[in-house]
Structure formats: structure tokens, C-alpha cells
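The records we work with from here on pair a chain with its fold. A complete example follows; check for yourself that the lines match position by position.
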Amino acid sequence: MQDKKTRTGQPPDSIDSAILNAILSARIKPGARLGESQLAELFSVSRTRVREAMMRLEARGIVHVSPKRGWYVHEPSTTEAMQVYAARRIVEVGLLNTMKPLTEPQKQVLRDHLAEEKAAIAEGDRQTLTFLMGDFHIRIAELAGNPILTHILQNLTARTILISMLYQSEFHAIESHEGHCRIAEAIERDDFSAAAALAVQHLDEVETGLDLTLTRDPLADLRQSLSLPSRTPDKPVPGAPIPTTRTTLQLRKG
């Protein structure tokens, strides 16, 4: 696998790349504050450079600015979550249906990637596995030789990971890995229509695993810090994201 720091198509030390890769690896949570001064110090650049990077990420739906408060990692609403998955279906089906047969070295890239997924599952390495699960789809776009679609899938994948951190109660690692294996097998035998159908099935399964019914508790972080009991859930409010990651690594089928 290529170094995670080079997967965004940006210089390894760029602010855009660092933040996007942190999201792709689930190392940064939705709602996290991104201070301009701190980032400027970390990257040894001016706050103007930081602000330019934040504006680029905002245009990609990754961060947003709150007046007089600063920049924050985006917290997708339930409506946006469904829209992102709908967009991924359209992009990935179109990509797979127009792919050309891969060379043997290209097929080996997919095999090696799946081997890395399997190894991460065996090691229980959630952070690496999260990155690999999203990177699988980006790799297919790269192998198809379409940098524009690769860029689009990078954005959609990052937003999908933000969605999973908010709404996915369990992470079925083996189920997702096996879905990738079936897609790769169809690509290897040049059956791209089957690969497209399997990609839709895979995305459907992942979206079905989301819990879009819980409301956001604005005091969740403070409540947890003070060891106070969780708030009794209210009736669902459409479009309201929940505040914290509730994911656990489930190394089982189904």
C-alpha cells in the first residue's frame, strides 16, 4: 500500500493532506476544532496559508467555519449521510461500468490491498483498517486511470468515514472485507457489470448498518468528562447528527 500521507494527491506536509488523511484513518472526529494558530505553528506557515487550506477543505465538504469560533471538522446530518451514499453509488457504478480490463500488475495491486485488509483484521488494527476500507474504492479509480474520479472518491470516502464515526454502532470488518473481495474477483475476470452490482450491494449493506435515528446531545462531551449519565434519547430529529463515535470492531460475519 502507498503511504497514507501520499494518498490525497497533495504534498505529504500539506495541511489539506494531513487533515484529510487523519479523517481517512479515523484519527480525527467530526466536530473537532481546527485552530488556525495551532495549525500555523505546527506547519510553520502563516495563518493566511492555514485559512486558504481550510477554505479548500470547506469547498470539499470536509470542514466548516463557525463565525467567531473558528474551523471545525464537518458533522454530516442524516440527510447528508443518505445523499453521500447515493452519490457514491452513482460514481462507483459509472466508474466500474466503464472500466477497461486491468493488466496483471494492476490486478496484483488489488490482491496486495486485500491482503493488507486481512492482516489488519487479524491484528485488530482499527485505525489502519478504517483507512484501508476506504482506500480500496479510491484504488479502483486510480487503476481506472481517472484522476478526476479519484479526487471525487477521496472526498466522498472522507465524508463517508465522518458519517460512520457519527452513525455506525458496529463495524463489521470481515463483512466489509468479503464485499471488497467479491468486487475484486469480478474485476479480475473482467466482469465489470457484476463488479458494479456488487459495489451497490456493498454500499447498501454499509448504509443499512448506520443508525440515523438518534438525536444530538450538545452537552455530550462535557457530560462524559463529568462522568454524568447519558441523556435519555429524545424522538429523532431529522438531519441532527449524534455527537460521539460509538463504533466497535466486530470481527465476525453478518
